[in-house]
Amino acid sequence: MATAPVADQQRLLEVQDADLRIQQARHRLETLPQLAQIAELTGRAADLQEDAIARGAEVSDLRREVTKAEDDVQAVRARAERDQSRLDSGSANAKDLQALQAELEVLKKRLSDLEDIELEAMERLETAEASHADATRQRDAIDAQIAELEAERARAAADIQDEVADIEAERVLKAEGLDAALVSLYERLRDQHGGVGAAALQGPRCLGCNMTLNAGDLRAIESAPADQVVRCEECGRILVRKADA
Length: 245
Ligand SMILES: [Zn+2]
Known about the structure:
- The radius of gyration is 42 Å and the shape is rod-shaped.
- The protein has 2 domains: about 5-25 and about 180-240, no CATH class; about 30-155, Orthogonal Bundle (Helix Hairpins), CATH 1.10.287.1490.
- Helix content is about 75%, strand content about 5%.
- β3 and β4 form a beta hairpin.
- It contains 5 helices and 4 strands.
- With about 240 residues, the chain is mainly alpha-helical.
- The two termini are about 20 Å apart.
- The chain has helices at about 5-30, 35-90, 95-175, 180-190, 215-225, and strands at about 200, 205, 230, 240.
- The protein has a 4-stranded mixed sheet.
- About 15% of the residues are buried.
- The chain binds zinc ion (ZN).
- Zinc ion (ZN) binds near residues 206, 211 and 232.
C-alpha cells in the first residue's frame, strides 16, 4: 500500500486545482469566440475576393469592347467626313457624285448603328464598374472586420497566457517537495481521467466522479491509516480524506 504524508495529500488537491485551472484557461484559449468568427469571415472574404476578381475581369473585357466600338465609330466617321469633303469640293464627276452620296447614306446608317453599339457597351461598362467597386468595398469591409477581430483575439489570448503563467508559477510552489511517488501516481491518473487525478472525499462522495461510495468501501477508507494513499473504488482516482477527520 502506497503511503504519503497527510500534508502532501492535502497539498496535492491544491496542485490538482491549479492544474484544472490551467486546463480550463488553455481550453478558453482554443475556443476564443473570435476564432469561430474569424473562420467564418475568412470564408466569406475568399468568396468576395473571387467575386471582385471576376467583376474586375468583366470590367477589363468591357473596356476593350468600348474601345473597339469607339474605334469603329471613328473609322466610319472619318470615312464619311472624307466623302463629305469630296462632295463639298465639287471635284467629283456626276457618276462619282452619285456613288459618293449612296456611300454616305450607307455610312450614316452604319455610324448610327455603331454609335448605338458604343453607347450600349458604355452602359454595360458603367454597370460592371459599379458592381466591381461594390464587390471591392464589401471585401475591404470584411478584411477590416477580420483585422479587428484578430487584434481582439490576440489581446484576449495574451491575457489568458498571462493567467496561465501565473497559475503555473503557483503550481510550481504548491508541488515543491511533494512526495514523488504520490505525484507520479497523480500524473498518471490525471492523464487517464481527463485532467482529474486526485479528488476530495466529501462525506460519502468522491468529488472526482461524484459517486457515493458504498458503506463497506467507505468504512475501509475511513479506517485506513491517515498516511495511506486511498483510491476511489468507482473511478480509481486518488481520494483525499479531510485531515484530522
Ligand atoms: Zn471517484
